[in-house]
C-alpha cells in the first residue's frame, strides 16, 4: 500500500512549463472566462434554459489539471465543469450550441450545461448529481487496469461532494484495488451556502486521504503552475502502479452557487479579497504582460466566443420527431 502523505504544495518549486505553454494556458483561461460571461448573458436573455453553475474565478484549476494529462486519459466532470470541458479541448462553438439546446451541440442539445460530454475525446461527461462522477471513476480506473494501458482517469468534484458517502466509498475502493484515479477536489469554500469550515472538522480535505492509505495534497487552486505540478505528479504515480491521489485545489467562485443564489451568506469584502488573487491576473503578471498585451488576448478570446455564439444561434433546433433519442429513463 502506498505511503500516506498529505502536504501543501505551491509553484515555488522549479518551473517546468515554458513561457509559451504558460501563454497558451493564460489564453485558455481567458476563453473560459469569456465563455461563461457570455453564457450568463444568454441565460439572462432566455436563450439558455434550466440553471447554470459558473466557475468564474476557478479557471486555473481546470487549465492546470488538463494541461498535465494526455489525450488518452479520461475526464469525469462536475456540474460546475464548463472550464474543465473547454480546457480538455472541446470546441467553444459546439459547447455553446449544447448550452442553447441546439442539434449541433456535443450532446445534440440534450445534455446542456450540467451534462455535457465529448466521448470521442475521452470526456465522459459532467454530472448534475453531487459526487455522481466519483463511483464512475472507479469503474473507469478498473477498466484501465484490466486493459493494462498507461492511462489515468481524473474525476472533478467540489468540497460539498467530499462529505457524500460516494466520495468515501470511491476512495476506499480505488485504494484497495490500487487504481489509476486522480480525485480532484475543487474547494471553492462553499457547498451552496455552507462554508467548508462548518461542514468538516479538518483543516484540509486532502487530509482525508490518510484514511485510505493514499497520497493527499493541497495546492493553491488559483496558481495554474501549482495545479499542473500536482496533477503531473499524480499521473506519474498512477501510471507507475502506485495508485490514486486526492488533490485539493483551494479556489473561489465569484458568482453564486447557481442563478437562484442571492449570496446572502458571504460578504463583499470576502469576494473582493479572492478577486485580488484572480488566477488570470496572477498569471499575466507572472508572465510580465503589459495591460495592452493582456487586453489584446482578452479581445481575441471575445472574438472566439462571439463566433461560437453566432454558430449556435444559426444552428437548428432538435427535430421533435426524434427528440427522445438517447433518453433511457
Summarize the structure.
This protein is an alpha/beta fold. The protein is built from 11 helices and 8 strands. It has helices at residues 19-44, 59-67, 82-87, 92-99, 133-147, 165-176, 196-199, 224-239, 268-275, 279-286, 291-314, and strands at residues 5-9, 74-76, 153-158, 181-187, 190-191, 194-195, 215-220, 245-250.
Describe this structure in words.
The structure is a single chain. The chain has 329 residues and is α/β, with parallel strands linked by helices. 41% of the residues lie in helices and 11% in strands. The chain is built from 11 helices and 8 strands. The strands form 2 sheets. Strands 1-7-8-4-3-2 form a 6-stranded parallel beta sheet, with helices on both faces. The protein is globular and about 50 Å long. The model is unreliable at 1-7 and 10-14 (pLDDT under 50).
Q: What string, H for helix and E for strand, traces the elements in order?
A: EHHEHHHEHEEEHEHEHHH
Count of alpha/pi helices: 11
**Shape descriptor:** globular
Number of strands: 8
> What's the average pLDDT?
92
Beta-strand percentage? 5-15%
Structural class: alpha/beta
**Rg from alpha-carbon coordinates:** 19 Å
Largest sheet strand order: 1-7-8-4-3-2
Uncertain ranges? 1-7, 10-14
Q: Main sheet, how many strands, which sense, barrel?
A: 6 strands, parallel
How many angstroms separate the termini? Answer: 40 Å
Helicity level: 40-55%
